[in-house]
Amino acid sequence: GLDRYNPETTTVFQDYVVSQCENQTYDCYANLALLKLYQFNPHLGRDETITNILVKSLTVFPSPDFSLCLALLPPHVLAPNPAANSLAEAVQKLNTLHSQLIGASYDQFWSTLDGDDLYADLIADVQGFEELMRIRQAVVISQTMQSVDRAVLESWLNLNGEAFDKFVKETCGWSVGGSTVSIPLNKENEARGTVVRENVKFDQFSRMIKRAYEQPA
């Protein structure tokens, strides 16, 4: 098999990252292996490949992939006041997006993404990035809600009008009625009572009562 930590395989992994970006596929283990190669061989590292891996990992939130990738990068990338147009600046910009996603601040995510030209450069290589992000956001929303106000959902998905209706109905399979969007029940968003039964034998119960009345020595 392919030796994951052989420096000679670096170009193979780098080409694979390009393929993932172009074809909307994703392979976390291969990407982590490449970052590990960069960790062992810093001179082989390519900033563009690193940022592409981080951008791809955002498209599978709320999985821990972004944090796993971040942990393999040099510590200096998170140092305050990064130089302009540096890897550190790019990583910290992407880390801001990640924090907003994990905090479910979806409207802030889109505002941040649209508010800095650097983000446009960072996501340029990842085909369908915005659509992938909306799908992931919709998945998380569907796991926690049965209905949501249309205006709120529009801000979360950064869509409105016909584009919003098409995404919600055709991609998500949700229904729109007036100012409310209804989400079908699923095992995550359906409220169910849980009954927990614990069998305690009589002798165990009696020992518990006895200990409760025992005076400390």
From TrEMBL:
A cellular-component GO term for this protein: eukaryotic translation initiation factor 3 complex
Keyword Cytoplasm part of the UniProt annotation: yes
Q: Name one GO biological process term.
A: regulation of translational initiation
Q: Where is the PCI domain?
A: 26-199
Keyword set, alphabetical order: Cytoplasm, Initiation factor, Protein biosynthesis
Molecular function GO terms recorded: ribosome binding; translation initiation factor activity
What PANTHER family does this protein map onto?
Answer: EUKARYOTIC TRANSLATION INITIATION FACTOR 3 SUBUNIT 11, EUKARYOTIC TRANSLATION INITIATION FACTOR 3 SUBUNIT K
What name is this protein filed under?
Answer: Eukaryotic translation initiation factor 3 subunit K
Source organism phylogeny:
Eukaryota, Fungi, Dikarya, Ascomycota, Pezizomycotina
